[in-house]
Amino acid sequence: MGIKVLGTGSYLPEKVVTNDDIAKSLDTNDEWIYSHTGIHSRHVAGENETTATMGAEAARRALEMAGVDPLEVGLIVVATTTPDYNVFPSTACLVQDLLGCKNAGAFDLAGACAGFVYALEQARGFVNFYPDKKAIVIGAETLTRIVDWSDRASCILFGDGAGAVVLGNDEAPGVASTKTTAHTILGADGSGSGFIARSGGTKEALPINPETGVPMPAQPIVPKMTLMGHDVFAFAVRALSRVASQLCERMGTTPAEIDRVFAHQANGRIIEAVARRMKLPLDKFWLNLETTGNTSGASIPISLDQAVRSGELKDGMKIVMVGFGAGLTYAGTFCTWPNL
Ligand code: UT7
Question: Pocket of ligand 1, candidates 24, 147, 267: which has the most ligand atoms within 8 Å of its Cβ, to mutate?
Answer without folding.
Answer: 267
